[in-house]
Amino acid sequence: MTAAPVLTAPPLPATSPAEKLTLAVVAGGLLALLLALADANPGRQTTWFYLALGLISAGTLAWSWLKYGQHPAGVQQNNLWLRDSTGRGAIAWVTGLVLTGFYVVLYWFSNNDGQGNFGPLNNLVHSLDGFSQWLRARPADQWFLYGTFYTLAILLMGGRALWKYRQSRYQLIRTASVMFFQLGFAFLIPGVLQFFQQPEYYFTYFWPLKYDYLFPGTVTALVKDGGLGVFMVFWGGMMSLLATPVLTYFLGKRWYCSWVCGCGGLAETAGDPYRHLSDKSRTAWRWEVRIIYTVLGAIIIITALLWTHFATGGTLLGAAGTVAAKGYGFAIGAVFSGVIGVGFYPLMGSRVWCRFGCPMAAYLGLLQKHFSRFRISTNGAQCISCGNCSNVCEMGIDVQQYAQRGEPIIRASCVGCGMCSTACPRGVLNLENGPREGRYQASPLIHADSLRILS
Q1: Can you give the pTM of this predicted structure?
Q2: Domains of the chain in sequence order
Q3: What residue spans of 184-243 are helical by DSSP H?
């Protein structure tokens, strides 16, 4: 009796010496960042800090060029499930722990103590004082440090995405779009506004995602600032209540979630190596529906209560309204969107926040599913069941099941990133903004094939 053969995983492709060198440069940048964090000399802190940013940037871009720019274009799985870094191995757990730890320190242990001390991140914050003074005419704080890191991550990993998906015009434009909006509208413009003593305002974030922009306290404070403040209130209200439904009707939620939003921008660039980790099970979908619409309902109720409280002269709720708003900001705005939403990238995929918690995604999803012209059409006659489309879907949609049946994909959770279409080797999937009539109908080719089989 012969023993059963032992199945072993194929060996991973060897990393070239040039790639190892670029990764060593990135490691050197991380080491310099630790030195900036620990050095007590202010001059050396700044030197170490900018050296770290330079090495990390150069190493990441050089590695991306070697890894993707020097190889044939096209979506390749690259043994993602076999690697420790992208297959929930030891490196992924360490990465998740570091990201989660950074967010915990940022949110709860780095507040200004009144004397310009920002706790464990103090050295890194003050290393940016010169740049902050140039851009905002004020010293740096922990949020300016975070914004710098966040923007740099999108730009660097956006460069990686541009090389990786260079065969797709749609992906190139979409990636360039999120890089542009993050750098210009979410980083530089808010800083310039502060430079001119104007309110810090993010023109690419709207209620209910930026929930306080329609709170009465924020609205009244902006209106008191005069013309620009009034315009900001008008812009926020118009984008939330008028432009969002109109744009979603014509384009689906992709106009925001995959082209403009900073949360989506980070997921599509820095989170791209982890997109395959999203749970495709029906159980995950049930939890998604339960949680995300609960969050949307909560912010709608809180906003309505605060405005009712404001209209009654502040006598209706007392301190309860403020407590509710702060509680929501802590649980959803900090823990869910930050600590879990980004910290769990290496373990649960890149769209944990967008999929399970973002109220803007829920709002857009309802519009997309019931009122939009957007859909992903499928041609089941051409599907070879390779599974590439489902593997790259970061929103947990089992795209292959739709493709095999030739059914259009009209899901509230779909962000229209187009990766399923980009990854398909047969051109089965197409993003469309067609007429609403017949958008739920399966491909005519499927009906024809079924009739032939039945006959």
Answers
A1: 0.91
A2: 205-371 (no CATH), 373-454 (3.30.70.20)
A3: 189-195, 216-224, 227-238
